[in-house]
Amino acid sequence: MAMRFKHFIFALLAGLALILDQLVHAQDQSGFISIDCGSPPNSSYTEGTTGINYISDAAFIDTGISKSISPDIKATHQQQTWNLRSFPQGNRNCYTINVTGGTKYLIRATFLHGNYDGTGNNLPQFDLYLGANIWDTGQSGKFIA
Which of 114, 125, 128 is closest to 82 using CA atoms? Predict the structure, then answer.
């Protein structure tokens, strides 16, 4: 009898773990926008590891060049890092995202060079602005939140 109870508890805990895993991946994403920079215009997908829905950045910017990271690097990174947007021209290249004054926003950015241009480890450095204010200095491999 005690052995049956142990098997029941194990099965119950395993079932709860699966349910919790599905709940974490199925969280409501309304109010959030996840942009995949450099992905083809009008494209969207759900990232398989995180369950986060991504859309193309094409509707938010009209400059830059879309590129893909090196295939050997792509195998070890999540899908939202497979494409990127390079800005070889211009002093400032801006994304236009509508916001509401007085509202707080969570902004998170990840940068991956991914040897998209064949220069190896020649990592560029760049400034990030929110409006007219400098936010941070970015570099490939850096996570900013």
Answer: 114
Buried b (16+ CB within 10 A) or exposed e, 18-29: eeeeeeeeeeee
CB 107 within 8 A of CB 130: yes
Secondary structure letter of residue 41 according to DSSP: T
Q: What residue spans of 1-145 are helical by DSSP H?
A: 2-25, 71-74
For the record, the structure tokens of 123 come out as 């990592």
Amino acid (one-letter) located at 56: S
pTM of the model: 0.72
**For residue range 108-133, what is the model confidence (pLDDT) as tens digits?**
888 888 888 888 767 777 888 888 88
Q: At residue 54, what are phi and psi to the nearest 5 degrees?
A: -115, 150
pLDDT tens per residue, range 80-89 = 999 999 888 8
Q: How many CB atoms lie within 10 A of CB 11?
A: 10
Beta strands in the chain (DSSP E): 35-36, 44-46, 53-56, 65-68, 83-86, 109-110, 125-130, 133-139, 143-144
